Amino acid sequence: MTTLETSAPPKTKSQALRSYDVADFPALTGLEEEWRFTPLKRLRDLATTGSGAVATGAAPKWEIPALPTGVTVTTVGREDARLGSVLTPFDRISALAYGAFESATLISVANEATPAEPIQVRLVGGGAEAIAYGHTFIEIGALAEATLILEHTGSATLADNVEISVGPGAHLTLVTVTDWARDAVQAQHLKFRLGRDAKVLHVQVSLGGDLVRQYTSVEYADRGGDMSAYGLYFATEGQHLEHRLLVDHAVPDCRSYVGYRGALQGEQAHTVWVGDVLIRAEATGTDTYEINRNLLLSDGARADSVPNLEIETGEVAGAGHASATGRFDDEHLFYLMARGIPEDEARKLVVRGFFAELLAKIPVPELHDRLGDVIEARLHAGEGLPEPPEVQSGASA
Questions:
Q1: What transmembrane ranges does the database entry give (predicted)?
Q2: CA 303, CA 241: separation in Å to the nearest integer?
């Protein structure tokens, strides 16, 4: 497999090094732009292991319930031609994971299949003491319509890649939930390729783990692709949750929308969101927008937010980005408490409202409710929350 070599630092994301061989990527120092927000020491040996790495721990196990007609989940070897056809690593750990996995999980939805129920699978970690590697390939056949829920639970130190091929005219709703145990570490690269007139709704939920770094990239194979990427994350004391995205518009008349929201509570809670959208010269008629909003619920928390647009053509339908980070809205809290709503309930209402739009996009009521309960439980813990504004007695609407 080929490597794109660069003799000088890349001017755009399209010129960045891509390779399946970890040896092509320099050792990480933490000074690289792509890694400057990531605490490398907390990635354990994932940040220092080189070529020829092998798993030293138990691989995570898949839990797969009964599957609807038209859907299969199988294990395939490295020789399967589909593996690597969507995703070429463009960072060191993604290349490490590609070189070290032994077998891959293939989730397939047949052409024109329309399962009535969501496909729900779960990856359960085998322990955080040693390193594991993984690879998943998701293929959605032409004109198929499916909802897939992919959950991550348990403990793990995991580097993995996920390739998602969405066929022409297909519609995919993908919900990924990282609800790891508190000691888990994960570095994941998730890559979409959309066929002609394909439509994807991706909701990425990050709640658990010690350090979770997820890189999502999007490629359009033909005209008419439509990608909506939403993210919801809640970091508590000491957690590091990092999301990076690259939406690569390289063909005409495609659309993308990226909307991520995060809340942070507790000392040294840290979130990172970096959103890159590249509109190449040939991608006329592109319509794109990205926005990230962060809500700081306590002192000692930090949110880094970096939206980027690279536009190489003036013939676009629309392109924009926005980012906002702020503290708990005392005015909203005051308004609710002045109307007799207790403090704890008022806080929950404000944060629930902040996340309501994203939770509503999850099409499985049980999962929607469970994630809402997790968020409310974290608020109930109340670590380091700011004091509420004073409410004068007798206040009225």
A1: none
A2: 10
Q: What is the pLDDT of residue 10?
A: 56
Go through 313-333 and write b for each residue having 16 or more CB atoms within 10 A of its CB, e for each that does not: beeeeebebebebeebeeeeb
Q: Please report the beta strands in 68-126, taking only residues with DSSP state E, as ranges in sequence order.
A: 71-77, 103-109, 119-124
Token pair for residue 368? Answer: 């929607």
Q: Which regions of the chain are under pLDDT 70? A: 1-12, 14-15, 50-53, 328-330, 332, 335, 382-397
What per-residue confidence (pLDDT) applies to 349?
79
Per DSSP, the residues of 186-240 read EEEEEEEEE-TT-EEEEEEEE--SSEEEEEEEEEESSTT-EEEEEEEEEE-TT-E
96, HSE (Cβ side, Cα atoms, 13 Å): 24
Residue 369 exposure: Cα atoms within 13 Å on the Cβ side: 3
Q: Which two tokens stand for residue 20?
A: 């399946």
Q: Which two structure tokens, joined as six digits, stand for 124? A: 């359960």
Instruction: Give the Å distances, CA to CA, from 21 to 8, 102, 123, 359.
Output: 19, 15, 26, 38
Predicted structure pTM score: 0.90
Supply the pLDDT for residue 57: 72
Written as six digits, the tokens of 204 are: 């990425």
Residues 206 and 179: beta-carbon distance below 8 Å: no
Domain spans in the chain, listed from the N-terminal domain onward = 13-327, 329-397
Give CA separation, 186 vs 175, 212, 247, 253, 357, in Å. Answer: 17, 5, 22, 35, 27
Pairing of strands 103-109, 71-77: antiparallel
Q: Which residue has the tokens 């930090």?
A: 302
CB atoms within 10 A of CB 33: 9
Rounded CA separation 364/150 (Å): 12
Q: How far is CA 19 from CA 35, 98, 99, 160, 218, in A?
A: 18, 10, 11, 15, 17
Tens digit of each residue's pLDDT (9 = 90 or more) over 281-320: 999 999 999 999 999 988 899 999 999 999 999 899 999 9
Q: Which two tokens stand for residue 39?
A: 């605490």
Q: What is the predicted pLDDT for the residue at 383?
A: 41
